[in-house]
Write a structure and sequence with these properties.
Order of helices and strands: HHHH
Shape: rod-shaped
Number of strands: 0
Distance between the termini: 39 Å
Strand content: under 5%
Helix content: over 70%
Length: 108
């Protein structure tokens, strides 16, 4: 004897369970991805702080001038000396902080 009174109710239950299972799998995946990203971003906090301190400092200005004068080897990666690179990173950091705060308020 089934808990459902007829085949139509049973079929509806199967359809509902399949739909909810899709929600369940997507939510689990999103949670795992978000947790991984949050942990990585927390670990990067020291990196952001170091870049914030470096950007605009006298040392950064000296390094920037040396780069402009062509004193560094061409193969040296120096994205930190682009005038917009660190600025954009710090702006994005502020935006992410706002997004995370909003998420925390509305997560329920």
């Amino acid at each position: 004897m089934s808990v459902y009174s007829n085949e139509k109710e049973y079929d509806s239950a199967v359809k509902r369970i399949k739909k909810m299972e899709k929600h369940f799998v997507r939510a689990l995946s999103a949670q795992a991805e978000l947790k991984k990203a949050v942990v990585a971003y927390i670990k990067a906090k020291e990196d952001v702080s170091a870049l914030k301190e470096y950007y605009g400092s006298e040392q950064w200005k000296l390094d920037f001038s040396a780069d402009e004068a062509g004193e560094f080897p061409a193969e040296l990666k120096r994205g930190v000396l682009s005038e917009d690179g660190i600025w954009d990173l710090l702006e994005e950091h502020s935006e992410i902080a706002g997004t995370v705060a909003e998420l925390a308020e509305n997560i329920g």
